[in-house]
Records
---
Amino acid sequence: METVKEKKKTREKAATIKISGAEAIIHCLLAEGVDLLYGYPGGAIMPVYDELYKFQDRLTHILTRHEQGATHAAQGYARVTGKVGVAMATSGPGATNLVTGLADAQIDSTPIVCITGQVPRHLLGSDAFQETDIIGISTPVTKWNHQITKAAEIPEVMAKAFYIAKSGRPGPVLIDITKNAQFEEFEFSYEPCKGVRSYNAAPKPDIKAIEAAAELINKAKKPYIVWGQGVILGKAEEQLKALVEKAGIPAAWTILGASALSTDHPLNVGMVGMHGNYGPNILTNECDVLVAIGMRFDDRVTGNLETYAKQAKVIHFEIDPAEVNKNVKAHIAVLGDSKKTLELLLPLINENKHESWHNVFKEKYQIEFDEVIEHDIHPTKKGLTMGEVIEEINLASKNNAVIVTDVGQHQMIACRYAKFKESKSNITSGGLGTMGFALPAAIGAKMGAMDREVVAIIGDGGYQMTIQELGVIFQHQIPVKIVVLNNDHLGMVRQWQELFFESRYAATVMVNPDFVKIAEGYHIEAKRVSERKDLKATIQEMIASDKPYFLEVKVEKEDNVFPMIPSGASVSDIRLK
Amino acid sequence: MKKQWFTISVYSENNVGLLNRISGIFLKRHINIESLNVSKSEIDEVSKFTIVVNTTEKWVHNIVGQIEKQIEVIKAFYHTDEETIYQESALFKIASHLLFDERQIQNIIKENNSQIVTVAREFFVLAKTGRRHEIDEMYEQLKPFGIMQFVRSGRISVTKDEMQISALLNEFQEHE
């Protein structure tokens, strides 16, 4: 970490001496408190890498094995720390390889700044070597992007990039810098950005809307809270807990909202959505007031909108005005930062208990427990289930690991059964559903939270999409724990094929390599578990290790994830089998 | 919900790439832009986009929300035809001899309140400003005589109600 004194020194030095654009970029990063970035060098970004070499005592650069890995690592870091993650790449293919990470960060509101090199100004538009229009390509998947063609623009644009990435509803920003601007010298001075006149980061809370919301909550007989990542991004975990407890309201979470309230909180009733819990889904259509906090009514949460919570009055706490009335009509919209609005709401809320209503959730949970959960986490059949693996990880890590997941069956099972004590502990690709997210994201998460246990849980399909990042784990000895739940299938697609395509398993059977040998090739300690008797001890050994550790668990090949709301069906029509 | 015509007005910073960002919002939703005009606005250094679409109110609400979210957009509005004063402009290029050979052409020019922009040896150019149907009528009237070239601009419009952009910008400056 840079000290205040050093910062001042940096600025004083910069104010008097001409420096190159490339060096200016480093000073901007340092001024924004960046001490870690992920990236991959190449021709058009070489001047910046040359400066990174000189500043390596203050700025750690991690060479991922693919630029996509750099974006996901930056995302993992951002999600676990709440700070801005940084990724860097060269022009052309380096830049296009960032696109998946940008799209993922855009839809999951993750603050990252990506810096790309670009061909020199005079070659723009000439189809020069490794020229690509990354501004054009990244526009739909960035909160903001900008091309710098003159060194003098660097400080202001970089300051704006960080401000925009982290303020309001966070998101990804891409800054493309032509090579001539990296070489040019200019007098550097840096001022952090405090505002952009055309950009209102967060609407001011409207006390009238908050009063109306409080009145509705106080009158409600069957109120129900569904919170999302907005609670975590807004650092409103305490306020959420206070609201839940004071008003005695059962509360459920979207996949990205997981861990904002501890799993064992009595009023935490579980997950909503396609593979969420039975009660939280079915009772969405029985509550009288639905309090949505920092969530956006994604189709995987709502199912068929025509039959979603039609009986309820909807109160929507939301920072992004464009999300209000987008999918679900809000009777009361409370715009603004979740922490501020909830703080204003709390004194207006009457203490209450909704025991009989809460008991309905408990009854539904019992049904789900008997039909699904018990069989998932304490199976009696021969084959290993994904659920029992998650349960053993909970036990070994004392419910306090950061769980990083990829996409598919293992993700749904992990999010259903992982137990959380601390916020920012569930890192997953929610909106975009990016296979290959978990391994690099786990690297970023671990580097952002070295004091915490970070367990990546990945399917055999997604693992092979970014498997090369094992190189980073090995090179830097990043002690992440990697668990591949191997069912030799692209499990979620196979499940849909079984249920909706008459078991025609088109392109979902995986012929897999020896994952243990691959990990060992990277000198990472690796084990394989195929039988229940070995599971507990091996997971305990993995969690106890202070080094990187790879564990492959051979699970049942054709297990399905339930409950399930079939695509396009109502939340009321959730299936238990 | 019924489809109808909406005029979207966007006040923005003058920025390279913003047009791409805005048009992408329509592309993502598979909504065709009927016409688009970009010009300066009543405020120094603030640009104005005037976009016409035929869609439902639900979609135009969604689109305007997404447009307004873009960093360089100061404010975006949507209005129905009844809420705006709007015009389009058109140019007709016609062979010069017709002006003398066909008496009717001169009547068409007069009746449509059209202006002769230029007359050259080979051709003359007519300009017409008005509502879409007025331009279409003039087009139909001239068509039998042969139109060498025709072009029509996007809609430009002002609203009957105030759009408080200056107030918004002042508010920002006070924050500073």
---
Amino acid sequence: MTNHWVDIKNADFILIMGGNAAEAHPCGFKWVTEAKAQRKARLAVVDPRFTRSAAVADFYAPIRPGSDIAFLGGVINYLLANDRVHHEYVKHYTNATYLVREDYGFEDGIFSGYDAGSRKYDRESWNYQIGADGYVMVDETMQNPRCVYQMMKQHYARYTPEMVERVCGTPKDAFLKVAEMIGATAAPDKVMTIMYALGWTQHTVGSQNIRAMAMIQLLLGNIGRAGGGVNALRGHANVQGITDMCLYSDVLPGYLGAPTDADTTREDYLAKRSLKPLRPNQMSYWQNFPKFHTSLMKSFYGKAATAENGFRYDWLPKKDAPYDVLHIFELMHQGKMNGFICQGFNPLAAVSCVKKVRESLAKLKYLVVIDPLATETSEFWQDYGEYNESDPAKVATEVFRLPSTCFAEETGSFTNSGRVLQWHWAAADPPGEAKGDLEIVGTLFYRLRELYQKEGGTFPDPVLNLDWSYAIPQVPQPEEVAREFNGKAIADVTDPKDPAKVLAKAGEQLATFGHLRDDGSTSSGNWLYCGAWSQAGNLMARRDTADPSGLGFYPNWGFSWPANRRILYNRANADPSGKPWDPKRKTIAWDGSKWSGYDVPDMRPDAAPEENVGPFIMHPDGVAHLFALKGLSDGPFPEHYEPFETPLAANPMHPKNPLALQNPAARIFKGDQADLGKADKYPYVATTYRLTEHQHYWTKNVLSNAIVQPSQFVELDEDLAKQKGIASGDLVKVSSQRGYVRGTAVVTRRLKPLQVDGKKVHTVGIPIHWGFVGVAKQGFLANRLTPYVGDANSQTPEYKAFLVNIEKA
Amino acid sequence: MALQSLDIKARSATTTPSPSARGEAVKVAKLIDISKCIGCKACQVACMEWNDLRDEVGDNFGVYDNPRDLTDQSWTLMRFSEVEVQAGKLEWLIRKDGCMHCADPGCLKACPSPGAIVQYANGIVDFHQENCIGCGYCITGCPFDIPRISKKDSKVYKCTLCSDRVAVGMAPACVKTCPTGAIVFGSKEDMIHHAEGRIADLKERGYQNAGLYDPAGVGGTHVMYVLQHADQPEIYAGLPKDPSISPMVALWKGITKPLASFGLGLAVLAGFFHYMTAGPNEVEDDEEEHTS
């Protein structure tokens, strides 16, 4: 979230799209009811299904799964055509006035630089025109046809309300009603928030779905403001924490881009990421990248990392390819990976195309599952009849189960969707032989290091020299790890403006990432978390309910990254002169000498408004990007492409270009192409989703959850049910090109057939929570149906839009 | 069970006067705002947890309602209704069903077993299973079809409004857990006042017939609903429009008091009432259905 959970209460209008907050985030949803009750806020829901969120909404509009960009593009067009734009905000805080290179273009659904052979774009032309002074060229009047504003206007002119209806199936009047509600918040004293989740990410255009919404919020001037922002509702209690600490291959902790094969030297690697300002006076905060990275290396390798040896940059893995989940199982499937450790991860249930994942697991030599429960993954080799057919004698994979604690049996920190780190304390002892994850990983590391010490091996240095200075090496304590990720001064840290002034003495915990250095005098395991455990102690454990703003910031409750800031980009809550757009929702303001107020300023504290320092300090140009430059792999403007399995023969936006039917930059592995189904055999759109009664594949192990939602079902509309002779309560079989599931039919008016491009399109709904392990009734993993193709940027599989057939079982 | 902090003001099949030394107690009420309810069923789980209830793991039978019906193990249940009050405008109305705690409780009036059903001074109607003879008359007497007989011990169970929690100043478990604040609890007076605010908000959002459900036919209830369409309570999974106690119960009530005071055998009476209200077999069928 750019904002945080409690802040939703400050919104005038709430849009839930690409998510179902009431269903999947019922506790956070309370802030929606607060906004409605206290501010008379309005709530609109756009979703393929009339959801639990829709049940309490003021307005609901249906949409075909996988057509969100067409809808959002329609909103952008509506805002521009009807002058529902916060002009001053757009002019000063976005790149609307910046000029785009002459060689950038978009033709028949394809952006400039496309190579069909590699399915990749050369993004060179997706850039600004740079003047002789080295800065971006701008046109303050926004009349130049190459300025971002005009380019955007031209790009989205095609997204008319009629086109929205044709692509999305959303009736034109329903679309216009939502657009009007959104547009009303262009007024400087009105703010809207957007709550989205996996309904936007799990598409082959997932990242672009979110970008389209970010553009809308920028046009309305709603980012950086109380009650506004772009708010991703994350999964379980610590998914945000996982992302921040980066258990991914692309990034190091704190979203530091990981080195690749191309980054041969530390100097090149750091220089490429230390972006210089593209406009005068801009902070371009990533210029501090070397400080964050060097401190991380010190945290990894301690004394072994010195300036002389380049802080052991040579020990860091340099990735040769993306190692997202789809690529991992592809490699496993090809027999190129022989061992796999799953920690708190149930890939057989959670990854798309169960068939492929099961085949992959069976090719491993060993599989380690660290989990409090038996999972479908740990049981993949067992025969569960139709739910999981297997001949154990034929599976050579050796499976180790290491029982771990669950959240209530652990002490540590959770980072919630609103970036707030909250310390929690173990409430119960773990059962049986279960051990905490830290102990399991600590012991594993300790034993591996012993083996390396005794036997040597390939490249033992990073293992032997890893800084592992915990009191009991096999059992690192959560407090020790928390102090480590915060970071400390190794030598005295002094003020660059006044070297006599010591900011942090050697050995002290650091108070802020502002004190991190690139000379090896500081260490920090995650710059974003720096300050969470300072000399003042564990700030994550704070539970002060004081709220001076009355806006629900609770500055002394837990610790919010970065720097305990509750709303990101909060400089943008004020006009260029430093006055809040809406004094009643002031977060910070210019007080004549500095930025002050209720939140930690996202701005250099003494940057006077006349200096024109832009609020989007992480960007080298200081402004938000309506035109994304090279930021995403599949285009600087979001464009509608059909899902990889579509009921349509052509993209209605580009009927004559088959290359533009689907996202041309989305990756698909060779073998998986054949596993995609066509509309003649699988005529219905399907989408998978969660139910309030369950949490993923865990709570089917819990009796009370199993009682309130006991067995597998699928949802379909009355029209389709009639056509197929299916009644509510009948057993039905849903098949895709990749597999089938059976469940009880729930025939409902909450799903309606939609008229899309002259064709009636039915959507079949598949809740995901069943499997073959647990106390709920056994069921089929929903991902037996889903395709093995992901978003062009994040590679998140397309769980939300694919094709199926349905029949009475 | 008797609760020291709560006087019993009415007791089934009993003529002994109720205690009155402590004066009037504050009447409590639970208010369920259907316009805020997201049907998450956290209240069902909280009820199970607090009252140590575990129903069977059943099956989906074509709707979101689960378990399928109220049982001796499920004292509250979300009932989902898909309706179009205005053509083309779908509404998914989700009503938390359970005991309404009537001010004039039909169950208590119908009960022939002394002290099996009591009404506390704060308005809560409670079943004391140790006194229950399993005759099922409370089921007939209930205008809301709430009490359920257990197959295991042939005694009748229903929501207690967490009388044990309320007696020590806590809110019922369902109220405590409700994530959206759709269920609130307090004095009946305060709840009516709270409901007025909610109704004004709903009217402002276009629900012209929004209103409070506190039916007079049963003397008002200690569980009330805010309804978006108070003129049509029956669209909320059959919430009765004008609930009242069956005239047969009133008749029984008229006879039982003198008879009981003369000390006649209950078995004879039970048979009489059984025949008068439902005939000899139908009650059994009812029981079968409720306990299946």
